[in-house]
Amino acid sequence: MNVCIDKEETVRRMNAKTNNLKKYDIYGKEADRIRKELQKTTEVKAGIFEDYRDKLIDEEQYVQISGKYADKIKELTARLDEMLKAQAAYSREYHIDEEWKEVVEKYLNKRKLTREMVEAFVDKVVVHEDARVDVYLKYDDVLNDLKILSAEREAV
Q1: Among the four 45, 86, 96, 136, which has the fewest Cβ within 10 Å?
Q2: Can you spell out the DSSP letters for 3-37?
Q3: Higher model confidence: residue 14 or residue 87?
Q4: Distance (Å) of CA 74 to CA 22, 36, 79
């Protein structure tokens, strides 16, 4: 839990550095560019439907052209999501998942493991025949992402 809080603070502190603020701006500008392209593509796709409705193109042409634009919209939407996620990772106000943070802060100063804590943090426990035990935490992926972000910022 302390690692979580420490790493979040490290990321926030490092994001305030000039070169990281520039990256934040770059991702924001790229997101804006993608939004504009997405809007244009959506308008063109709508225009194709109007052409089909007005019988300027037949159904086969409409399906083919519309499909291409639908694929492009899907691709642009995915790229926009990537840019927004990357931009958020460089935000001065970077913060971890709120639900997870609330759970961490709730139990941060507890020194004795309780059933409630186990239910809050543990996803599953696997006991192997050779007596090995694997404990899978609910937020392992979030913590790993946070550790990676922190290491990247500290390396710069």
Answers
A1: 136
A2: HHHHHHHHHHHHHTSHHHHHHHHHHHHHHHHHHHH
A3: 87
A4: 28, 14, 9
